[in-house]
């Protein structure tokens, strides 16, 4: 059977943007920004997105389109070495780690979605979240979220992933714009914008090193780089077109949604007098935003709309996580897509249920473990692109573009010489912090 492919550019870009835009933007980003000094964090984060994230994303695109394989086969075939294939297995691990906590959060969102029409969490948002976040309810809704994810991936690249994401992404963009306009009229909105966007050096609580570390982790997570998702998606690109342009577009869309998310979430949080805006961790989106909706006119409807948008964004990311592992089984293990989806689904059913019952496991996976896996993965991919693919990477970079190889050479220098030491540095600092003293709070947040 011929390899599956996207119908065209829009399908690929929206699927990749769908992967990027997710809980990282709607939840992790606004809070990381708030906790790490507002716009100071924003600047460092944007710098790392530009200097590390986008070139890294391009490295994955180049590897994927060049090989027409998912990560294990891609690294093995392009290098002619089985050892590189083993390195590619890191992406399989990444997919499983990601799904094991992400689908628990996806489950929380579905729980809030179905609870919104009746306002079930309005009376006591804190207690409600406490009751459903870990335990049987969390496990049940994780299974539901996983089933929705599996249902999309089951349908295939075109009829499942592409069809779903091309419907979902425009809805997410438009709904967020609509919500941001609506909340701009709430009392407390201007206070919220000040809190979110002011460049307040005094408010920087974390050290600069912590900010860099947090910003680096967030930059990789939000762009979905380091997991092999983008290698896998680019392997379904059948034609020549500009990969640098597509990577830029994905990064721009992702950043825009991140900024929009803050413009929605913060005014909501500031609309309730006395709400604790400094609250962080898994509860803040659910407790703080839920409390805001409980006091607003048409709060139930608005809450339903809000959680529906978050659910769509989360789903378009989780399908990209599942697809990494499914593509591996299809490419390398001769499984049918359907068998693979059922098999991986069964595994995540178990691992996700474990994290839905164990807050410590959940927080480890969602924080330090995923940061470590993505950083290590991206390190391998950029080194591979620059030093193993080398000239072929340059060819692939310029294929379908108007560029001469000058820009491609600069990119290769960046991914080959500048980015690996930076990633190695953040890995080291992260390991020291883990072994050393206290775990910084950003690692425990989502
Ligand atoms: N980028 C996604 C988000 O922001 C998360 C993700 C990470 C998806 C890695 C796939 C791979 O929510
Ligand atoms: Na993102």
Automatic annotation (TrEMBL):
It comes from the Archaea. It is found in: Membrane. SUPFAM superfamilies: SNF-like (SSF161070). The keyword Ubl conjugation does not apply. GO terms for cellular component: membrane. The chain crosses the membrane at residues 12-30, 42-63, 84-109, 129-155, 167-188, 208-236, 248-270, 301-328, 340-357, 369-389, 410-432. Its main location: membrane. It is a multi-pass membrane protein. The keyword Transmembrane applies. Keywords: Membrane, Transmembrane, Transmembrane helix, Transport. InterPro entries: Na/ntran_symport, SNS_sf, YocR/YhdH-like. NCBIfam families: Na_transp. This is Sodium-dependent transporter. It comes from Haloarchaeobius litoreus.
């Amino acid at each position: 059977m011929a390899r599956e492919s996207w119908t065209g550019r829009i399908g690929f870009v929206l699927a990749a943007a769908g992967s990027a835009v997710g809980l990282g933007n709607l939840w992790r980003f606004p809070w990381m920004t708030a906790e790490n000094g507002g716009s100071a964090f924003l600047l460092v984060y944007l710098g790392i997105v530009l200097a590390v994230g986008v070139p890294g994303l391009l490295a994955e695109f180049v590897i994927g389109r060049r090989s027409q394989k998912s990560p294990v086969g891609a690294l093995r075939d392009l290098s002619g070495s089985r050892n590189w294939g083993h390195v590619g297995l890191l992406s399989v691990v990444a997919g499983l780690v990601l799904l094991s906590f992400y689908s628990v959060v996806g489950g929380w969102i579905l729980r809030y979605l179905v609870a919104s029409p009746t306002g079930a969490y309005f009376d006591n948002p804190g207690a409600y979240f406490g009751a459903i976040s870990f335990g049987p309810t969390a496990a049940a809704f994780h299974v539901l979220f996983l089933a929705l994810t599996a249902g999309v991936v089951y349908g295939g690249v075109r009829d499942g992933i592409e069809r779903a994401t091309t419907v979902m992404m425009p809805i997410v963009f438009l709904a967020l714009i609509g919500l941001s306009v609506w909340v701009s009229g709430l009392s407390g909105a201007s206070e919220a914008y000040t809190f979110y966007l002011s460049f307040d050096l005094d408010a920087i609580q974390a050290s600069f090193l912590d900010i860099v570390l947090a910003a680096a982790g967030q930059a990789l997570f939000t762009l979905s780089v380091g997991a092999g998702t983008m290698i896998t998606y680019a392997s379904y690109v059948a034609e020549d077109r500009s990969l640098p342009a597509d990577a830029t577009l994905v990064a721009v869309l992702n950043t825009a949604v991140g900024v929009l998310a803050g413009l929605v979430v913060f005014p909501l949080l500031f609309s309730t007098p006395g709400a604790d805006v400094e609250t962080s961790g898994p509860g803040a989106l659910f407790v703080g935003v839920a409390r805001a909706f409980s006091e607003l006119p048409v709060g139930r409807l608005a809450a339903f709309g809000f959680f529906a948008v978050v659910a769509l964004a989360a789903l378009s990311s989780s399908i990209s996580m599942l697809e990494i592992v499914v593509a591996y089984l299809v490419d390398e293990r001769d499984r049918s897509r359907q068998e693979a989806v059922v098999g991986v689904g069964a595994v995540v059913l178990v691992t996700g249920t474990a994290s839905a019952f164990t807050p410590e496991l959940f927080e480890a996976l969602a924080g330090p473990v995923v940061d470590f896996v993505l950083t290590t993965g991206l390190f391998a991919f950029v080194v591979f692109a620059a030093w193993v693919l080398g000239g072929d990477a340059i060819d692939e970079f310029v294929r379908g573009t108007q560029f001469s190889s000058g820009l491609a050479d600069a990119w290769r220098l960046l991914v080959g010489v500048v980015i690996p030491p930076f990633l190695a540095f953040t890995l080291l600092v992260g390991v020291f912090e883990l072994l050393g003293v206290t775990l910084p709070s950003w690692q425990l947040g989502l």
